[in-house]
Amino acid sequence: MSSQDATTLPLPLTSPSQHGxxxxxxxxxxxxxxxxxxxxNGSGPFLIVAxxxxxxxxxxxxxxxxxxxxxxxxxxxxxxxxxxxxxxxxWQELLRHEPLACGHSLQVSINNHND
Length: 115
What we know:
The chain has 115 residues and is of the alpha+beta class.
């Protein structure tokens, strides 16, 4: 996948006419990346997690079903990425949005134009 295959999609991606307002869409051709706090008190370090599809509230979804999310990195208290293991397009989008904060989320298209 080249960096040209990725597109950052603003929240909410869905419209009421398509899926209902604020609805999650598991097979939307994108990945949702969220910054979540592993501790209930919201203190760092923060995890960078990802899940295929559109998830309007990544923090709540991750708390309810952590096994469905993949940890892809760590975020320092200064909002800078400390560690990340993901595709180049997702990494580039995360860097573009630095500094990040807990609660920040984005969606990146994973459509492959080489089909």
